[in-house]
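Hi, here's the filled form for the chain we discussed.

Project: internal
Contact: R.S.
Residues: 1011
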Amino acid sequence: MAPDEISESSVDTTGMLTEVRTAEAAPAESFLLLQSPHDQEVRWRPGERMETLFEEQCDTLAREGRADQLAVDTGNRTLTYAQLDAMANQLARYLMADGAKAGDRIALLFDQAIWSYAAMLAVLKIRAAYVPLDAGFPPDRIDYIMEDSGCSRVLTLNHLVNVLPETDVIALTLDTEVPLIKQLPSSRLGEHEKPEPVEDLAYIIYTSGSTGRPKGVAIEHPSICNFLRVAAEVYGYRSDDRVYQGLTIAFDFSVEEMWVPWMVGATLVPKPSSASMLGADLEEYLLENRITAMCCVPTLLATIEGELPDLRFLLVSGEACPRDLAERWHLPGRRFLNVYGPTEATVTATMEVLEPGKPITLGQPLPTYTTMILDPDEPRALAPGEMGELGIAGIGVAAGYLNNPEKTSQVFIDDFLDIPNNPSGRIYRSGDLCRVNESGEIEYFGRIDTQVKIRGYRIELSEIESVLLQVPGIAQAVVDTHEPAPGMVELAAFYTLRSDVLSLDPHAIQDELRDRLPGYMVPAFYEQLETMPMLPSDKADRKNLPTPKNRLGVATDVEYVAPANGTEEALAEQLGSVLGLDRVSVEAHVFEELGANSLTIAQFSAALRRETDLPPLGVQDIYQHPTIRELAAALATGTSSVVEWAEPYDVPSARRATTFDFVLCGILQAVVSLAYSGALMFVLVAGYEWVIEGNGILELWLRSVGFTVGFFLLVCLAPIALKWMVIGRWKEQHIRIWSLAYLRFWFVKALVQMNPMAVFVGTPVLPFYLRLMGAKIGSNVTIMSWSLPVCTDLLTIGDNTVIHKESHYLGYRAYQGWIQTGRVTIGRNAHVSEKTVLDIHTTMEDGAQLGHASSLQRLQTIPAGESWYGSPAVPADVRFQRVGPMPTSKLQRLFYGLSTLVTNAAVFSPLPLLLIALLLPPYLDTGHLNPANPAFFVDLALVSVILVIGALLLALLVATTIPRLLYLLITPGKAYPLYGLHYAVHRAIFFLTDVFPLMHITADSSLVVHY
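And the returned structure, exactly as it came back:
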């Protein structure tokens, strides 16, 4: 069609409704929906590929001085854009050395995000195409995808090899090849190294197919690069966003989470490996990781009950978004998008900004995309208001289905409308029943065919039906959706038997489906029918199918075992309510026998928090303990006693402080800070004036020692006195933030955290000091952590316990506008490893051990003698304390504590004051200490340079010499008792080498290796 044939009837400034006549000049007017003509300009540039977009972003960040911008933050590991690029470069060279070449199709099978990202980029860098797989796919499906796509090799990890079927495809376990990969150059492939492109194929995504086998959608670089540039323009991601990445790369919706954020320089925060993130677990993860942007299906969003105040960007897709969900999650300042797009149109084709009170639609096409409503039976486009099949055109339309020309020709039809900026010359028939409303937006009414979306997964019901018909004994099979409860959509299988078959075990049918289909495609309900309701056209009459009632696993073959106690009864009641069951056997498997899935488990977890007084349960807990009986036992083990957690723990409702409270508290905090620091400064000035009155170095030294010892005692004992005066004894309570009670809490907290006693970590002095603050601490306790407890009266530590560095056991938590204080109890001979957190109301019984980087969450208890690890902590099979006990006498502890105290108070602390007393008075006599005197500025510059540079050089000299000499006294691998000579040497080495300025200057640079 020539441009002058296009009507000028535009709808609004954001989208243009354009009249177009068909080639046959049909009586009905035909319409296209597209953006303004300028916005239809293709964004892809000739020769541009996905990997070059990522490399351009890396170069842009480097030019802007932001080379340290994170591309990935897993919590345990971070990678900047440059580091991820370098990792992919090394991996690309490894693949080429292994024989991979341009034009290859290479499968990716990972359950760890960083490996997925690096492998994806590496495959693209060698001009190959990647074929993403999911570790949850059955081997049969993986085998078919690799064979159909013609994969030359599959990249995976060693622990996933058993997921792969027996095949001739080369399997490369990258984690076992790390030493070899790291030896390869990390620079980008040079022009002489890059293979010549063979084709434009970027990746192949497999979606559900109607023949019983998935179909591969081939996406080329022009299509995906164009989409990425368009989405980066219109979505609203920012470079400072932290984007939650929770989807498997086997689904193209994950491109929304990964590549679009990378286009603007944002940081991806992937979900933990092998974790099921739903409901409260997901909410906590998003809060802890300060997530500001998130893409998800509405079903997943509906499992989150709390608020996410950091979330400023929210995108939903994959299924219809309910109005109440949109209303609930809309906030001023939060950009909330509803996007739509089949895989065949390259990720996303339309977008709507969700607003309160506005009808939810599919919105309008993205720039460079064109949509129209097609007559399902004739080659013509329908006018606005008429209902038909949604068609999509533009550069985003895929190349077609791999090895499936018949299906390709059915849905990728010739462009009979001569649509502008449609380089493919094709229109994709989506199969979605839609119309264009008066506002020029697309309204969705369901599927024309048998394709549905459940929990974001696109499912061809006919694919499940095809597999059902292959089960021996089944004559007819129909699969449909069923909604047993609002918002909970399940699959239901209806089938009839052959005349020579009397019965079939539904479990056998389910097992057959599980072997052939992913878990999300296995029906929950199985109904055997005498006859299948049929239409005159000899098709199944889906509207007259009976309401399914037989959820697999709750039939009479499951023996009912009643709850034995109140905990089991509460758990069974809530699970039955979620699953729609009158009663639940406490020994029935939640998944295999009761038919639960990830969504129902998230609802069950939320119901327990909302309806019972039981401790909070994560989704992962239910996966680990999949019966009510096991779950109840785990709850009992995870708390100090049933009575303790059965009593309601009153948590006041969330509150928002008033502006008056906030301002008043801030003013009072400033006054208190100035008063306390002013008092200390007055004492320091008075002490200095007293010291300089001494005659001779000896008297100056003695006066310096006397004053610093007195001042040291003052700043150490003042917090003790003020704590007892201001707070008294800490109690379990809730303190309203910004209230006067909070002001007292904050003051004591500040005194504790600024206390110079922190320098005595690892000595007997610190436990003694904490006892003076009200803590109940036994004998022979060793505390290595600089993080001192605040609510000391609520802390109990038994004899011979060791708490390692960077452990946090504060005795309080901030929650929903309140400070909650609570007990922390650690028994005798316990072991708390490094970088751990003990929440309030936690207990470690005698001999318990908590592993490195683990957290004991509220109401958890580690039983006597057990080792736990993780966050939240779970039982482990190893002991974290590898060195046996070594005796230390009371005299040895007393001598070491006193010597440390005297050394710090009487030797090191007086030195700065002595130097000032010796140097400052003569300088004052020069008259240079006057801003009106030019010499003042010269002296200031010289002294500053000398002090800074001199101190750094002196620190560097000390750090690189004295520790080397001290190391001669230490034998590697040998255990030494605490508080002896060797322990003192070890502490000296630590303090002399772990110098913050030197570590800060050399960190993240090549200097740190030499340091």
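Let me know if anything looks off before we file it.
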